[in-house]
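ARCHIVE CARD
CATEGORY: sequence design from structure
SOURCE FIELD: tokenized fold
FIELD CONTENT:
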């Protein structure tokens, strides 16, 4: 039978905490309440705009060159062709790279010069885009080019231009040279089109009218597609430089009143246009010569003609013979009077 003192002792042993000493464990860190310092600024000072957070998006690496300086003429040249967001971004980058390549410094990388100058080449919508980029988010020139192209040349535009290249077709009244220049313009607008040189030449050849295809085959000495890609490109460039290579689809409708023997319709059309071009040149030269001759003529004005004065045949004075004093009555020379009357 337990006594009261034993029961009390047992309850005390149960309520006492068990302390385990572990000298290997670090002592617990007791967090203390940090009392914030009082803000002694006035409300006007608190409402003022912050003086931090205005860093540019482009981070230019430190330049340790002693005599490095961007000359004002270089900045003016960059600003002469500003990009506003409406032009072709690829053309802008080509122009910018060409301008910045003229600046050389042995201790300054060219990419650092580009990072410094590129903001000067932007204006309008493009400038707003760069200002809205997060601070210090563009660290290299490749980062800047990537963000710039993705902003102003989105993937949807790439798809649109790729479709235009694939579905290219020569217009009815478009010359060979005009079609080739337009096709090259599409390729230049989308330099990342991904089409091989073979695909480009095949697409352009099949887009031409029959007359221009025959002309290319004739220049190739057979089938144009039997040539190597480099040879085919040289043939196209050579044909495009012919000044009067019109070769429209309706040029085959040559009048039969003056047929050309031993010639195909396409050759007839081309020869007729060469003749017309030669005649046009000659007429133009002749007209210029005539205009120059007309300009060289000196227009002379005639002097005013004096009034004819009447001279008497008898006395030689300025009077009519009827009023001549030698023929009037009372003179001493009646013989003159009779002669004059008879005359």
């Amino acid at each position: 039978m337990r006594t009261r003192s034993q029961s009390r002792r047992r309850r005390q042993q149960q309520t006492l905490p068990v302390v385990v000493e572990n000298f290997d464990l670090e002592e617990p860190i007791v967090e203390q309440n940090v009392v914030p310092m009082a803000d002694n600024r006035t409300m006007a000072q608190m409402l003022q705009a912050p003086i931090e957070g205005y860093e540019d998006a482009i981070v230019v690496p430190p330049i340790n060159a002693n005599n490095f300086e961007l000359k004002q003429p270089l900045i003016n040249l960059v600003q002469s062709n500003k990009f506003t967001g409406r032009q072709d971004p690829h053309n802008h980058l080509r122009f910018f790279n060409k301008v910045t390549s003229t600046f050389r410094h042995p201790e300054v990388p060219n990419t650092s010069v580009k990072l410094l100058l590129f903001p000067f080449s932007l204006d309008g919508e493009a400038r707003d885009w760069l200002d809205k980029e997060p601070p210090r988010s563009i660290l290299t020139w490749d980062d800047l080019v990537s963000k710039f192209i993705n902003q102003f040349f989105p993937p949807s535009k790439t798809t649109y231009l790729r479709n235009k290249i694939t579905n290219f077709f020569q217009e009815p009244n478009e010359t060979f040279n005009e079609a080739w220049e337009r096709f090259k313009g599409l390729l230049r607008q989308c330099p990342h089109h991904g089409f091989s040189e073979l695909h480009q030449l095949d697409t352009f050849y099949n887009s031409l009218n029959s007359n221009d295809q025959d002309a290319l085959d004739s220049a190739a000495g057979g089938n144009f597609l039997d040539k190597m890609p480099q040879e085919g490109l040289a043939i196209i460039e050579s044909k495009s430089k012919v000044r009067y290579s019109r070769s429209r689809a309706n040029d085959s409708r040559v009048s039969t009143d003056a047929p050309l023997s031993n010639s195909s319709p396409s050759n007839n059309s081309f020869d007729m246009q060469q003749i017309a071009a030669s005649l046009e040149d000659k007429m133009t030269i002749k007209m210029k010569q005539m205009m120059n001759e007309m300009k060289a003529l000196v227009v002379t004005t005639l002097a005013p003609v004096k009034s004819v004065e009447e001279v008497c045949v008898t006395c030689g004075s300025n009077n009519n013979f009827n009023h001549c004093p030698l023929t009037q009555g009372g003179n001493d020379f009646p013989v003159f009077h009779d002669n004059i009357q008879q005359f």
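CARD ANNOTATION: The longest helix spans residues 265-296. Residues 277 and 321 are 74 Å apart (CA to CA).
SHELF: design records, drawer C
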